[in-house]
Design goal:
Blueprint: E1 5-10, H1 14-25, E2 29-35, E3 48-49, H2 52-56, H3 59-62, E4 66-69, H4 76-85, E5 89-93, H5 100-113, E6 117-120, H6 127-138, E7 144-152, H7 175-178, H8 181-191, E8 194-202, E9 215-222, E10 227-233, E11 242-249, E12 252-257, E13 263-269, H9 287-307, H10 315-332, E14 333-334
Parallel strand pairs: 1-2, 1-4, 2-3, 4-5, 5-6, 7-10, 8-14
Antiparallel strand pairs: 7-11, 8-9, 9-10, 11-12, 12-13
Helix pairs in contact: 4-5, 5-10, 6-8, 8-10
Length: about 325
């Protein structure tokens, strides 16, 4: 790789600002532009555009390698397709899209224009997540009996503000897309595809302030054997309660936790010596710092894949699979 990889960021909200910060601090990256419909003065020296089309016609776009899509969920697909049409590589914040057809159209367009698409699933790059994947793939657990995923978070009026896109069907799509697609991705990545899906969804804590359900119980079987459940909510009072994945298997049990899968909480496996167990994270790091660290790890791997083609991240195809799985859950749901 010669020189720095040049990024533009579309969407300057919470996640867009994080991308701008991480790109700005990365030694192999440079920020060429920011695109957002609201004017701002926070980035001196960086071109700012209020319209994606205007940016793609600009000289700044000519100097850009990768466009980051960090806008509301419902805009991801149309904006990614525009950037691919302009022959730019694309990094899409999760979710890739709000339906399978749009996600598949992005992959098809990328192949047509010979550009790469990445989906920001940074929790895969937590050392604990990587360790869990290695343990499952090694076979030391034997047959998988049960996998339980718990995601109990708080999203109240501080998040679902009047006039915001959060909580809308058109731009948010639901908490599985906006909050918990990371955990769907980890579930599929580690244990494979789901079948016999059953789900029950309710809106308990947000009344008429949102157009989506805030709570769900999902049961399923794994195509590879075993069964599982996903229990999730954004109706927890005041602050997040838990994020965890528990595995009960033939030869042992494992539980990992933390909002960004940064903690090893339990590991007891028969004759387990082949892989080193990560040390439990008892530090005082904030959840934000854990997320940013995983973000940087993702960016490092992405750069290798982008220029050296020696990393097989499967990010575009996996992004489609996550969207398709959420779609299947929503279609099977009892409301």
């Amino acid at each position: 790789m010669s020189g720095k990889t040049r990024f533009a960021v579309v969407g300057y909200g919470h996640m867009g600002k994080r991308h701008v910060t991480v790109i700005g601090e990365h030694p192999d990256c440079a920020l060429t532009a920011v695109v957002d419909m609201h004017p701002q003065q926070e980035l001196p020296g960086i071109p700012f555009y209020r319209d994606l089309d205007h940016f793609l016609e600009s000289s700044a776009a000519a100097e850009t390698d990768v466009v980051v899509i960090a806008t509301p969920n419902g805009l991801h697909a149309q904006q990614a397709l525009k950037c691919l049409d302009a022959r730019k590589h694309v990094l899409i914040e999760k979710p890739m899209a709000l339906n399978s057809a749009d996600a598949e159209a992005i992959v098809a367009k990328a192949a047509d224009v010979q550009r790469q698409v990445f989906v920001m699933m940074q929790n895969r790059f937590s050392p604990v997540s990587t360790w869990l994947k290695e343990v499952v793939d090694s076979g030391v657990l034997g047959k998988i009996f049960l996998v339980q995923v718990n995601c109990f978070w708080n999203r109240d009026e501080r998040y679902y503000k009047k006039g915001s896109w959060h909580g809308t069907k058109e731009l948010d799509g639901g908490v599985l897309f906006t909050q918990f697609s990371h955990f769907i991705d980890l579930l599929l990545w580690c244990f494979g595809d789901l079948t016999n899906i059953q789900a029950k969804l309710k809106n308990f804590g947000h009344g008429g302030s949102i157009e989506i359900e805030d709570t769900g119980i999902v049961q399923f079987d794994f195509v590879n054997g075993g069964m599982g459940c996903l229990n999730y909510t954004t109706a927890v009072w005041d602050k997040n309660l838990e994020s965890s994945i528990t595995v009960i298997a033939e030869n042992g049990s494992v539980k990992v936790g933390g909002q960004y899968m940064e903690r090893m909480e339990y590991c007891h496996i028969k004759d387990f010596k082949a892989l080193k167990t990560p040390v439990a994270d008892n530090s005082n790091k904030s959840e934000v710092s854990d997320s940013v660290v995983n973000h940087v790890r993702y960016l490092d791997r992405m750069l290798k894949q982008l220029w050296m083609r020696n990393e097989d991240m499967h990010v575009a195809v996996d992004g489609v699979t996550v969207v398709h799985t959420i779609e299947r859950i929503m279609n099977q749901a009892d409301r």
